[in-house]
Amino acid sequence: MDRRTFLQGLGALPLAAALPGLISGPALAQAAWPTRSATMIVPFPPGGQADLAARPMANALTTILGQTVVVENKGGAGGAIGNSMAAKAAPDGYTMLMTLSSLAVLPEAARLAGRQPSYEMSQLQPIARVLADPTVLAVPASAPWKNVAELVADAKANPGKIQYGSSGLYGTTHVSMAMFTTAAKIDLLHVPYQGGGPSLTALVSGEVQAIASAPGPLKPFLDKVRVLACFGAQRAPAFPNAPTFQELGYKDVEFYIWAGLFLPVGVPQPVQDKLGAAAKAAIESPDVVRILENAGSPPAYMDAAQFSAFVAADSARLVTAVKAIGKVE
């Protein structure tokens, strides 16, 4: 089954009728919200990690909250367009954002390029973390490189000739690949796309020769890609034969793609609490767990307080990495 068919099939996801009971009680009585449908912005095209997290979650939230939660893909500028739309939305709880770790990178990247950021982290409130996967380095199954050493040797012999795709300038997969190329002292040609899905399509079709990706989106294409290494501190369970970059001697090459749910700052606390409780029930529901695990990206839930602390720490690390990389075209 291809990934698009898989994602379309999520629309038929059933949830146990008893799920709303998981979030009953005083927290729900504090707010009438929602009384109409809500939008979950995904700042990338269909097919990437944020989209993978958003669709089963939106479907589950629809059942739990009793109002439709519609996923809207607003790709472009490495995620900045959709992130900005969510950050500037009315703080009424009817616009949510399912985004990636590049959320913290993009404002700093804009400043490096001499531009005014289209949004700031301070405009968004973390509600729940859904996924947290280490990035992996993938090449086409037909590529001549069987390991990272062979890729590096070829890149050094042919600087600027090997193309790699990304989710956009300073997107999650650009920053992780820039970490690798900087550490390996190689020059690869960067080809930015409007999201992880299009960059994966480009890899499978042969437009580019390498990408960084979360494990989940690669799963439908196991016969068409080869994973050479994992950016995490431990090997990815979905690709146990792929060594970590740290195992290969690249001690500073470590990167994770997390996906999380946010609201614009200013949403009333009772609404935040109700959505947070609904998100917890959704993430823990057997159907959502099954879908995410089958996609190779098991849930990695954090509540609002835990996720806020995690985002602050991870953002500081990522901003430091972007500043070290510098302006990258």
Automatic annotation (TrEMBL):
Where are the coiled-coil regions? none
Q: Which UniProt keywords apply?
A: Receptor, Signal
Q: Where is the signal peptide?
A: 1-29
Q: Which SUPFAM superfamilies is this protein grouped with?
A: Periplasmic binding protein-like II (SSF53850)
Q: Name one Pfam family in it.
A: TctC
Q: Which domain of life is it from?
A: Bacteria
**Family as reported in the entry's similarity comment:** Belongs to the UPF0065 (bug) family.
Question: What name appears for this protein in its UniProt entry?
Answer: Tripartite-type tricarboxylate transporter receptor subunit TctC
Organism this protein belongs to? Aquabacter spiritensis
